[in-house]
Design a protein that fits this description.
seven-stranded mixed beta sheet, mainly beta, about 45% strand, six-stranded antiparallel beta sheet, 1 helix
Length: about 300
């Protein structure tokens, strides 16, 4: 009887654990050019600064996200400077889309430029200033640190540039899509920066004309795709008949994928045209355990 009761307990625990992670597959779509700026922590008392909430804080669908706190576009005009902020339970990653500026990081001031990406840990004050003659545009990503989980700050600012990260082919993806592994978790041995706690993988996908990111899903992670260049079709979910649902995608489109949602990409570029580029980021759910470390997109 005791053995039977114990087995029943294990089955119930497994079902509960699975249901804690499970969520109805869904996706959200936005376009950077169509989003109106809104007040934000980064704009409070600032000058020459605007923030577009794409997902999370400031967006009407923020309540549907679990581990993603914010994903938005910060613009700092020449001579402008954002508010300097810090959070006790949120790690952030910045990616510079355009322009040059200065990152305020604690007591440091570090120059930043297009395609720089950086890790901003909890409790470290940070902001952005623009001393150049052109606008500075930055993607701001924030991820919730669950209660009781430690995410200590690295001993120094962790920053790199995507141009310095080599492209590589990953098993299961085929030669038509290559990856730049920008940032992973603290134990990563393959990403340029091994820095994060909740953000599991920041990477760029480079698609040859007609290239494909084979449709797949992640049961315990949320994912966001930003089309940096090109146009094609994003797989986001499935049709009622169970087929992959394809949605047109162009430069500036941003897709959020809930856990368990089918995701993929089909490039429409023709031979001789520039490769399509997508900036992608995945993060684990707050209810998930330590999970896979290292930030490497898995084989599909």
């Amino acid at each position: 009887m005791r053995k039977a009761a114990f087995l029943t307990f294990l089955i119930v625990a497994a079902v509960w654990s699975a249901s804690a992670w499970a969520a109805e597959p869904f996706f959200l779509k936005r376009n950077l050019a169509e989003i109106q700026p809104k007040p934000d922590d980064l704009t409070a008392g600032a000058r020459g600064v605007s923030y577009k909430p794409v997902f999370g804080v400031g967006d009407p669908d923020a309540g549907r996200l679990q581990g993603v706190v914010r994903y938005g576009e910060l613009t700092v005009l020449p001579g402008g400077v954002s508010a300097v902020v810090s959070y006790p339970d949120e790690e952030q990653i910045y990616y510079v889309l355009e322009g040059n500026g200065v990152l305020i990081y604690g007591d440091q001031r570090a120059p930043i430029k297009k395609d720089d990406f950086m890790y901003l840990p909890v409790n470290v004050r940070h902001g952005v200033a623009n001393e150049s003659g052109a606008p500075l545009r930055v993607i701001v990503m924030g991820y919730r640190i669950p209660a009781g989980r430690q995410a200590p700050a690295p001993p120094q600012l962790m920053i790199a540039n995507a141009e310095d990260v080599p492209l590589q082919i990953l098993g299961g993806h085929g030669p038509t899509s290559q990856f730049k592994l920008l940032m992973g978790q603290t134990t990563s041995q393959r990403d340029k920066l091994a820095a994060a706690s909740e953000m599991t993988s920041l990477f760029i996908m480079d698609f040859a004309p007609g290239g494909t990111n084979i449709p797949h899903s992640h049961a315990t992670e949320e994912e966001i795709y930003l089309v940096l260049r090109g146009s094609g079709e994003i797989v986001a979910g499935q049709t009622p008949s169970g087929e992959d649902a394809r949605h047109p995608a162009k430069q500036g489109d941003v897709f959020f994928f809930g856990p368990g949602t089918r995701v993929g990409y089909y490039s429409h570029a023709k031979e001789g045209q520039p490769h399509d580029l997508i900036l992608a980021v995945r993060s684990r759910l707050p209810s998930a355990g330590m999970g896979r470390r290292g930030g490497v997109p898995p084989k599909q």
